[in-house]
Input
Amino acid sequence: MTQPRWGTRVLAGALLAYALTACSATQQVTAAPPTANAPTASSLTPSPSPSAEPPSPSPTSTPDPSPSAAATSTATVIRRLPDAQWKRILATGTWRTGCPVDRAGLRDVDVPYVGFDGATHRGTLVVNADVSASVAGVFARLYRDRYPVHSIIPVEQFGGDDNASMAADNTSAFNCRRSGQANAPSAASPHANGRAVDLNPYENPWVDPRCACFQPDAYFGSHRVVAATTPAGRAVIVKGGSAWREFTSAGWTWQDNSTADYQHFDTGYPSRPLRRG
Output
């Protein structure tokens, strides 16, 4: 399966390492699969920006055996975090004493998604238990809509490093960020509370106020109208588009920050449970 050329090595290591962690979990809740037919190969192709390639950070673990044929399942599963995953979260500092939500309040949401190659893949988002059903529903609908996602790998597989995850165009959620990382954690942080999702960050960069520049890459930040007409532009989040529609109709807010942050959805700042109506 073809992936974009940016971040390939780190994605391979992270995805393969996560396979063994995820398989040890006991399924808790299984949602109805999306109603759409399983996707077939499409014309959607990896589409690196015309600007320079982003860096390829070193993987945080060595490769493990690849996932089984279950990777093509269209079921959406919510489960408690397995022991091996929690140990990795602790080892990478993705959670530590003082973070506003702990293991008991977190869930894995295992979802199908349409990759940039047009095929069905599976990924896992770590989120607060109180938004887990909402996240499962949103991603089931994104799969139905055939909205393309590059990868969905928990951020501990990148050592808890948000910059490495973004550089690999990885979609992620919970991260109690360490000092020195963007929006480092506080009780108010949506990511530290597991109530935020960063979706396709390469195609939907944010303006880092520390440099007043787009991260992880500037092209899709400054050429959004043009980019939206290209194959990879289908992953660009715009008001009225598939990703914007599915999240906001479920009560989530897009770009709830003081700077442009096209990848970011959350349930409010300071972080709070999802409010509807």
Remarks:
- The radius of gyration is 17 Å.
